[in-house]
From TrEMBL, chain A:
Cited PROSITE patterns: ABC_TRANSPORTER_1 (PS00211), ABC_TRANSPORTER_2 (PS50893)
Family as reported in the entry's similarity comment: Belongs to the ABC transporter superfamily.
Domain of life: Bacteria
Protein name, entry field: Oligopeptide transport system ATP-binding protein
InterPro entries: AAA+_ATPase (IPR003593), ABC_transp_ATP-bind (IPR050319), ABC_transporter-like_ATP-bd (IPR003439), ABC_transporter-like_CS (IPR017871), Oligopep_ABC_C (IPR013563), P-loop_NTPase (IPR027417)
Residues annotated as domain ABC transporter: 53-294
UniProtKB/TrEMBL annotation, chain B:
Residue intervals of the ABC transmembrane type-1 domain: 112-310
Family: Belongs to the binding-protein-dependent transport system permease family.
Keywords: Cell membrane, Membrane, Transmembrane, Transmembrane helix, Transport
Taxonomic lineage of the native organism: Bacteria, Bacillati, Actinomycetota, Actinomycetes, Geodermatophilales
Predominant cellular place of this UniProt entry's protein: membrane
Any one GO cellular component localisation term in the record: plasma membrane
Keyword Manganese appears in the UniProt entry: no
Protein name as annotated: Oligopeptide transport system permease protein
From TrEMBL, chain C:
Subcellular location: Cell membrane
Keywords from the named record: ATP-binding, Cell membrane, Membrane, Nucleotide-binding, Transport
Species annotation: Geodermatophilus tzadiensis
Molecular-function annotations in GO: ATP binding; ATP hydrolysis activity
A single GO BP: peptide transport
Family listed: Belongs to the ABC transporter superfamily.
UniProt name for this protein: Oligopeptide transport system ATP-binding protein
Main subcellular location of this protein, as a coarse class: membrane
GO cellular component, one term: plasma membrane
Length: 372, 323, 353
């Protein structure tokens, strides 16, 4: 008879017991080798990525650029979770690809522990790729269907041979599977035999294998069922506490981002429009776009229904190939004035307590505070 | 229910939520066999009657090539008696006799070996060229792809039979080993040289499709080398269609070999080949139709066997059937 | 020809108290080579004019399959409607001729889907596709149909409708395409609109626009709306009543206020506590353990029992109410609320009757 065993609980204890044999997976948060909590790990400055738009079949000529990412600043400190929210096409996924060095930035810099990732080569880049891992959105597309789960999880060790001794890799793979809540006996199974949530756990185990400092989570739960989403969110939180991980958590779901993040950045059309702690951004949003976004999220509690500000945005997001002058949001903004078309507002604190890229930034409570 | 029980239940509920939830397997725990996509495909293949028809015919063909003595019923294809020239099939000699008075069954059976050698060698060369060139073109793209694709286009411009025809005509006057012999090796290489482009295009398009997948991005983000990504991630996911193509192509090559030989540029006497038999038999088609009928029949069945196996393989490997 | 009266205003029918749609013990199974998949296992509900009923469930709960059965767009085979009835204004649709069914689907019941792009034909302009409804069902001329199309695009608030009527689907954004779909669905003034995850593929700001539009259209026409979704927030903001589905069954049913305010089935309770909320950071999430069941192997007894924190098995269980062996019927727990759980009173915190 199948019954819900509390796998996660036993997993944690079995791990700490196995320390001497295999090099332990657990690294207490903030321990010496890892450096201090709160130390700046990633610093993104003025990041831009423009994709050329080409025309013609034989002779390709560039007729313009899609400004997917157009000036993004972000800071990620050790042990914290920074949430990056935005709607589809705002460039948040491109940011994740830039940070894990799958794409090269057009301009700007990504500093990891003070070194520019774009200028890294050979060994330094390999070391960076060991310390910064990524979890993808689609658990069906992100696992090689012809590799066993064990091979998928252990691939990092095959690439970084010095990361784990050849002996004992199987045992460590099984420990990892156990840690993410999967039966360790399934190392020889193939991805298609698992459900979406289970596959996402495999993806997490793969990211953990190299004991990274930073994990970029690119919409890690948005493809999962509601009841399974919470399992994966909890797992991510547990792993962060246990291993002192830092997350860049990219998602479109504002509720999940608020739940998991220490700080939140809101993105619109390639740049960040507002940034602050989760409390600052959600309880006193000051950029009109953030306000509209928050106002659109349906609330779950019947007694809160109808208590929030109704802000319905008109029209669609402009094309990133031809963004509006000045403020990107001005074409849909109810506060827009002439200055918005001429001058792009900087992402600075205008007295509302946290940075906001709006000339007329003004804190406004949109979502009712749950008094319960 | 007592208050204590109520409390316990509450506690359970809280615990169920506060520990990292268990992912119980969606797979049947009792099922020991580890199912890879390949073994699932085999499961499908086993249930396909066309695969079995093709496999039985193919196996018969293979055995004919390996141990022709058994199928020839003891007759030697080279011990001939002109007195039996063009004798019709009989109980002792099922396929009758050819013009030279040789046992025709033995001749047809012994012809399988050359067909098989040529089919297999040619397809191996096609696979090698197709996979290597296709993988390089698809993976590196850009200029590499441009050059390799144009080279393939040039070969496309030369039809298979015509290209092979020219090469085999010119071959004997050159010093290139194998090509100048007009043996099975020369025929196989001539056919492969003008038939690898489709395999290359198949591999190329598959590689391009797989290259963009998240698991390849994951491997790249992890720092895996190009070689590792190609060999471990891209090729295993890109070869299925080309395997199907290769299976069908064995049949096509066997038919093409018979054509070349029939046209007089393939295998030469005293080699034994279905093409030669059909060519020799056509003159006496009115008086001894069996001389054309039997080799053609066996040839057709052989080609059909490989095409049927290839079709079944395609059905089994089609990823759209799998969740 | 059917004797159904589709000309009478919906409001009039509502006054008579006849439900527009009644689904009675509907069962759908998929007969595949590897076995029978029980997608819908005896669900019943009714929908009145002007009512919004949300069908809430996760993937594989059977929520979309039941809607497809109503619309008659199940692929048969492999799907088979193996039992039950679908009553539209008092007549069983399943017993009608194919001809009569066609007169109901479109003018009577219509549907919009999650993926608007693949539901629209890429080679025809949207105006042509909307107009098609009028040409096919009302026999309008090409010119008149086009005018109607512009009118409808205006109604679903597509800006500059007259100019965009000749554009092709790929020239519209996701939200605008969904509006085109809605325009086609409401073209013939249907009594019932089934919206199958209408906003799942859309961003929240666009979702808010589309849900707003659906609400307004419903108020104008008085149509009944069946909203199929997995999003608790959308249900809370839009629906009057909700039916929660799990493993092809309705496990809880009632008004949204009641069900969301105080769930009486452990699955609903688990769903509510496993989703983070935007209005508060909240503490640790309390997920439901395990995975949704495989519909080819639905657990015995209560289908939710392997994941249920409140289950009672063997000696713990009251006689005849062992969660692993006794199937809990959907029963009235308190007035206006039904749940399929042996121990709903405990979940609700009321004394058992």
């Amino acid at each position: 008879m199948s019954e819900p065993r509390e796998h996660g609980a036993t997993a944690a204890s079995s791990l700490s017991a196995s320390t001497p044999a295999a090099p332990s997976l657990s690294k207490p948060a903030g321990s010496g080798a890892r450096g201090a909590m709160g130390e700046t790990l990633l610093e993104v400055r003025g990041l831009q990525k423009h994709f050329p738009l080409t025309q013609g079949i034989v002779f390709k000529r560039t007729i313009g650029h899609v400004r997917a990412v157009d000036g993004v600043d972000l800071t990620l400190r050790r042990g914290e979770t920074v949430g990056l929210v935005g709607e589809s096409g705002c460039g948040k996924s491109t940011v994740s690809k830039l940070i894990v060095a799958l794409e090269r930035p057009t301009a700007g810099s990504i500093l990891y522990k003070g070194k520019d990732v774009a200028r890294m080569g050979g060994r330094a880049l390999k070391e960076y790729r060991r310390e910064v891992q990524i979890i993808f959105q689609d658990p069906y597309a992100s696992l090689n269907p012809r590799m066993t789960v064990g091979d998928i999880v252990a691939e990092g060790w095959a690439v970084h041979a010095d990361a784990a001794p050849r002996k004992g890799r199987l045992k460590r793979t099984q420990e990892l599977l156990d840690r993410v809540g999967l039966n360790p006996d399934y190392v020889n199974r193939y991805p298609h035999q698992f459900s979406g949530g289970q596959r996402q756990r495999i993806g997490i185990a793969r990211a953990l294998a190299l004991q990274p400092e930073v994990i970029v989570c690119d919409e890690p739960v948005s493809a999962l069922d509601v009841s399974v989403q919470a399992q994966v969110v909890n797992l991510l939180e547990d792993l962060q506490d246990e291993f002192g991980l830092s997350y860049l958590f990219i998602a479109h779901d504002l509720s999940v981002v608020r739940h998991i993040s220490d700080r939140v950045a809101v993105m619109y059309l390639g740049s960040i429009v507002e940034e602050g702690t989760d409390e600052q951004v959600y309880a006193s949003p000051s950029h009109p776009y953030t306000q509209a976004l928050l106002s659109s999220v349906p609330l779950h509690e019947p007694h809160l229904r109808g208590q929030k500000d109704r802000i319905l945005l008109q029209g669609d997001v402009p094309s990133p190939a031809d963004p509006p002058s000045g403020c990107r949001f001005r074409t849909r903004c109810w506060k827009a004035q002439d200055v918005c078309a001429q001058e792009a507002p900087a992402l600075v604190d205008r007295g509302q307590g946290h940075p906001s890229a709006c000339h007329f930034a003004e804190a406004r409570m949109v979502v009712p505070v749950d008094v319960e | 229910m007592t208050d204590q029980q109520q409390l316990d239940l509450r506690k359970d509920a809280v615990e169920a939520g506060t520990t990292t939830g268990l992912a119980s397997p969606s797979v049947d725990v009792t099922k020991e066999r580890q199912n890879s996509l390949w073994s699932d495909a085999w499961g499908d293949l086993r249930r396909n009657p066309f695969f079995w028809i093709g496999a039985v015919l193919g196996l018969a063909f293979l055995l004919m090539a390996l141990v022709p003595q058994v199928f020839a019923r003891g007759a030697d294809p080279r011990s001939c008696d002109l007195g039996n020239s063009r004798a019709l099939p009989s109980a002792q000699h099922w396929f009758g006799f050819d013009t030279q008075g040789c046992d025709y069954l033995a001749n047809v059976v012994y012809g399988a070996r050359n067909s098989l050698i040529i089919g297999v060698i040619a397809v191996l060369v096609i696979l090698l060229l197709g996979v290597v060139v296709g993988a390089l073109a698809g993976y590196y793209g850009g200029l590499t792809d441009g050059i390799l694709a144009r080279i393939a286009d040039i070969f496309y411009a030369l039809p298979l039979i015509l290209g092979a025809l020219v090469l085999l005509r010119v071959g004997p006057s050159t010093d290139i080993p194998v090509i100048n012999s007009r043996g099975p090796g020369a025929v196989a290489i001539a056919l492969a040289l003008f038939g690898w482009m489709t395999a290359m295009r198949l591999v190329r398009s598959q590689v391009i499709a797989v290259k963009g997948s998240d698991y390849v991005a994951a491997a790249r983000a992890m720092g895996a080398s190009s070689r590792r990504i190609l060999v471990r991630h891209i090729l295993p996911n890109a070869v299925a269609p080309v395997l199907v193509y290769a299976t069908i192509t064995i049949g096509v090559i066997i038919a093409a070999e018979a054509t070349l030989t029939y046209l007089g540029v393939g295998l030469q006497r005293p080699a034994i080949s279905w093409g030669l038999q059909i060519e020799a038999g056509q003159d006496s088609i009115r008086t001894a139709p069996h001389l054309v009928l039997f080799p053609s029949l066996i040839l057709t069945m052989t080609v059909m066997a490989f095409v049927m196996m290839g079709d079944a393989l395609r059905d089994a490997l089609d990823p759209r059937q799998r969740a | 020809m059917t004797n159904l009266d589709l000309t009478k205003p919906t409001a009039e029918l509502a006054a008579q108290g006849t439900p527009l749609l009644e689904v009675d013990d509907l069962r759908v199974e998929f007969r595949t080579r590897s076995g029978v998949v029980n997608a819908v296992n005896g669900i019943s509900y009714s929908l009145g004019a002007g009512e919004t009923l949300a069908i809430l469930g996760e993937s594989g709960s059977g929520k979309s399959v039941s809607a497809q059965a109503i619309m008659g767009i199940l692929e048969t085979p492999p799907a088979v409607i193996s039992g039950g009835g679908i009553w539209f204004q008092g007549r069983n649709v399943l017993e009608m001729s194919a001809e009569d069914q066609r007169t109901i689907r479109g003018p009577g019941i219509s549907m919009i889907f999650q993926d608007a792009l693949s539901s629209l034909n890429p080679v025809y302009s949207v105006g042509f596709q909307i107009g098609e409804m009028f040409r096919a069902h009302r026999g309008l001329s090409k010119k008149a149909a086009r005018a109607k199309a512009v009118e409808l695009m205006d109604r679903v608030r597509i800006p500059a409708a007259a100019r965009r009527v000749d554009d092709y689907p790929h020239q519209f954004s996701g939200g605008m395409r969904q509006r085109v779909m809605i325009a086609m669905a409401i073209a013939l003034d249907p009594r019932i609109l089934i919206a199958d995850e209408p906003t799942t593929a859309l961003d929240v700001t666009v979702q808010a626009q589309v849900m707003d539009l659906l609400k307004d259209l419903q108020q104008e026409t008085g149509m009944g709306l069946i909203l199929i979704t997995h999003d608790l927030g959308v249900v809370n903001e839009v629906a009057d009543n909700v039916a929660v589905m799990y493993a092809g069954e309705i496990v809880e049913r009632g008004t949204v206020d009641d069900v969301f305010g105080r769930p009486s089935h452990p699955y609903t309770e688990g769903l509510m506590s496993s989703v983070p909320q935007v209005e508060a950071k909240g503490g640790r999430l309390r997920p439901i353990a395990g995975q949704p069941p495989n519909l080819a192997r639905i657990p015995s007894g209560c289908p939710f029992h392997p994941r249920c924190a409140r289950r009672r098995l063997g000696a713990e269980a009251a006689p005849g109410r062992d969660c692993a062996t006794d199937v809990p019927p959907l029963r009235l727990v308190v007035p206006g609320r039904e749940a399929a759980c042996h121990y709903s009173e405990e979940v609700l915190g009321v004394r058992a009757p």
